[in-house]
Amino acid sequence: MALLNGEFSPQFHAPGITACRYEQCRPFHPGRLWQALTELMSSHARERVLRSAGFARLATRPSITALWNQVGRTFSLTALADDQEFSVQDELLAFGQDLAFFGIGLQQSTVSRVLDDAILSDEELQAGPMAWSTFPDPFPEWNTVDR
């Protein structure tokens, strides 16, 4: 989370180990995100993601901020907070995507390209949440949100 807070200062520098941040205001299309994860987490990729974490939003669950947590081939995306439970005085955790990636030979341009392909297009964004609810969503259901 230090990278997301702008406080990341590696304790050591190993050749080939890199860190990058991905920020995007638009929500992810869940089906395309599933495909993007498959590409990013592939063990055959030249650029390899070792760890990623942060906050994300799926278009099919527009009011929920999710916690993104990945180590190696283990990935979870879990409900963290529901905007509808916040009062006017509360600060929202994240709007859109705010993710940190650490890997071997990882390039910011690759992470951005793969994840940008998973966000909503202009047409999808303009269609609004009613249309988004019809998107195929391969992620497990989130039953509750604990605050």
UniProtKB/TrEMBL annotation:
Signal sequence range: none
InterPro entries, per database record: CobW-like_C (IPR011629), Zn_Chap_cDPG_Synth (IPR051927)
Top-level lineage group: Bacteria
Domain CobW C-terminal per the UniProt entry, residue ranges: 17-119
Pfam family, one: CobW_C
PANTHER family in the record: COBW DOMAIN-CONTAINING PROTEIN DDB_G0274527 (PTHR43603), ZINC-REGULATED GTPASE METALLOPROTEIN ACTIVATOR 1 (PTHR43603:SF1)
Name used for this protein in its record: Cobalamin synthesis protein cobW-like protein
